[in-house]
Amino acid sequence: MKVGILGASGYTGLELVRILLRHPEFELTAVTSEQQAGRPLADAYPSLRGLTDLRCEAMAPEALAGRVELAFTALPHAASAPAVHALREAGVPVVDLSADFRIRDLATYETWYGKHAAPAHLREAVYGLPELHRDALRKTKLAAAPGCYPTSALLPLTPILRANLCERSGIHVDSKSGVSGAGRKLEVGYLFAELEGNVQAYKAGYAHRHAPEIEQEASRVAGEPVRVTFVPHLLPTVRGIATSVYVRPRAGATADAARAALEQAYASEPFVRVLPEGELPSLRSVCGSNFCDVAFVEDARNDTWILLSTLDNLGKGASGQAVQCANLMCSFAEEAGLLDAPWVP
């Protein structure tokens, strides 16, 4: 199946290229990049030399319609919606990696991102977390691949919510991300001299735009409103996210029941690994892969459960997850192109 990438020069776009070039079912036939238009992709990004002869094109979604059977849009938030609209109007299925179609409520989206350029497509978009919405993804023509922070929070949290084992408020999400999660851009805060040897929180509380995304999906699973306090941090590493979620058990709920809920939820999932009791997730065990490792820890003294996860923010947190969605949309094996082992060392 012929596929294209709009926005191939960012980190998520380049990760998509890397995955799709080895995919057994998808043939990457078109890539766009406003910055690199006209240049061979392998000249612009030497790591791809010998792997592809594709040349970067200027972004013209309508021109791709007759050339690709599915498109990935790896464009900035708000800029993606017009491209998705043009592709969908031409009948092309889309996996979008921006936030433009993740938030179901238009008013909530516009509070965080500004005016929506294609609100009519919110109705057809499916939140692209396969572990929550697999059946819907098999039927949709527009998948909204979720962000890395929400994925890392929702995967350990939702089985506990679904089993009605924890309180719906007072949930604290502490996440630490590698700098590639901010995208490929020049800003002072992302310079090596600013990052090296430094860790800092940013947009703490209900100030980060991924907080409503976490609450939206957690509330859908719980069947009632869920409220979280979200604090993201920037790590002096390139890839990976480590997340800790703190919840209060409901009266009568046991740690054994919580562990069982996690194990049952992910027993047949190809990309979520529930670690044995006493083993904790690490970035090294997931970077370069589409895996998310999760673990459960009980702090009985403080009547608190700690839900831990790690994933690669460019893999399961972005491009790998987008390909997982595309596999489902196209009725391919869900694991196709995604079973590379993590990079160790």
Q: Supply the helix-strand structural class.
A: alpha/beta
The helicity comes to 25-40%
Shape: globular
Question: CATH superfamily of the largest domain, please?
Answer: Dihydrodipicolinate Reductase, domain 2
The second-level CATH architecture of the largest domain is 2-Layer Sandwich
The CATH first-level class of the largest domain comes to: Alpha Beta
Assembly of the depicted chains? single chain
Question: Count of helical segments?
Answer: 11
| Elements, N to C (H/E) | EHEHEHEHEHEHEHEHEHEEHEEEH
> For the residues shown, what is the average pLDDT?
94
Count of distinct strands? 14
Low-pLDDT windows of residues: none
Strand order of the largest sheet: 3-2-1-4-5-7-6
Could you please describe the fold and organization of this structure?
With 345 residues, the protein is an alpha/beta fold. The protein has 2 domains: 2-124, NAD(P)-binding Rossmann-like Domain (Rossmann fold), CATH 3.40.50; 148-313, Dihydrodipicolinate Reductase, domain 2 (2-Layer Sandwich). Helices cover 30% and strands 19% of the residues. It is built from 11 helices and 14 strands. The protein has helices at 11-20, 41-44, 61-64, 80-89, 106-113, 130-139, 148-162, 192-195, 211-222, 255-266, 315-329; strands at residues 2-6, 27-32, 56-57, 70-73, 94-96, 126-127, 142-144, 171-177, 200-201, 228-234, 241-247, 272-274, 292-299, 304-311. The strands form 2 sheets. It has a 7-stranded parallel sheet, with helices on both faces. A 7-stranded mixed sheet has the order 9-10-8-11-14-13-12. Strand 13 (292-299) and strand 14 form a beta hairpin. The radius of gyration is 20 Å and the shape is globular. The two termini are 34 Å apart. The relative contact order is 0.14. The mean pLDDT is 94.
